[in-house]
Design brief:
- It is a single chain.
- The chain is an alpha/beta fold and 222 residues long.
- It is 40% helix and 17% strand.
- The protein contains 8 helices and 7 strands, in the order βαβαβαβαβαβααβα.
- Strands 3-2-1-4-6-5-7 form a 7-stranded mixed β-sheet, with helices on both faces.
- α1 runs parallel beside α2, α5 packs parallel to α7 and α5 runs parallel beside α8.
- The longest helix has 18 residues.
- The model has no long low-confidence stretch (mean pLDDT 85).
Length: 222
């Protein structure tokens, strides 16, 4: 198997990103933290932990940070890229589970939290249920956790998905385009660690972005 890297989008995550990056590097060949316009020293903490760092001078959104990270992975000739959040909610010890499904021929391995929802904030659980239901209808197969940020992508196919979203909607759009392109999507169960961190998802604004994205794909496929 070729190189596997970790792509970690981060915005003002200095309190956790160093620990996340250090733990991730126990399971992958390399890691890049994309500092999306942070003002709290996130980039410095990531670099001190051994990760490569790409910096956005201003906040451009999670989708844009993922795109930058995937471009870095392609430039460094990585075969796979594990996407995970910088706030400590995703357990790096579960990476081998994603890699196992990847080795069986998947183009995207999606970590699904829906078998272990204890502690998930009710609003997030509801919006995730709705968006996953709509996504499943659009792709013609069941997707249980379309908003999961923990996933492993085949780098040479991820660049062709043309996801236009620049924020959280990009993650769902990527799945829809992958399914339409005939790529193999598999899900594996994961746990999620909910602490005192404040989610950067805005339920109202990001659900509205999801609706706009879905309508765009339904009526224009652009």
């Amino acid at each position: 198997m070729g190189k596997i890297c970790a792509v970690i989008p981060a915005y003002n995550e200095a309190a956790t990103v160093g620990k996340v990056a250090a733990r991730v590097l126990e399971f992958v060949d390399c890691a890049v933290v994309v500092d999306d316009g942070s003002t709290d020293g996130t980039a410095e903490k990531a670099a001190a932990a051994g990760a490569s760092v790409a910096v956005h001078e201003s906040n451009r959104g999670k989708g844009a940070a993922i795109a930058t990270g995937l471009a870095w992975a392609r430039a460094h000739r990585c075969e796979g890229a594990v996407l995970l959040d910088a706030d400590g909610q995703h357990d790096p010890r579960e990476m081998p589970r994603l890699e196992e499904a990847f080795l069986r021929g998947a183009d995207i391995v999606l970590g699904s939290r829906m078998r272990a929802r204890a502690g998930m904030p009710p609003v997030r659980a509801f919006t995730n249920f709705i968006t996953s239901l709509v996504t499943s209808c659009m792709v013609g197969r069941r997707i249980t956790d379309s908003q999961s940020g923990y996933r492993l992508l085949r780098v040479d196919t991820a660049g062709a998905l043309r996801a236009a979203g620049s924020r959280f909607d990009m993650e769902t759009e990527m799945l829809i385009r992958a399914a339409r392109a005939g790529l193999v999507i598999r899900e594996v169960p994961i746990t999620t660690i909910y602490g005192r961190e404040k989610s950067k998802i805005n339920p109202l604004a990001d659900t509205f972005r999801f609706i706009i994205m879905a309508l765009r794909l339904i009526f224009t496929d652009r």
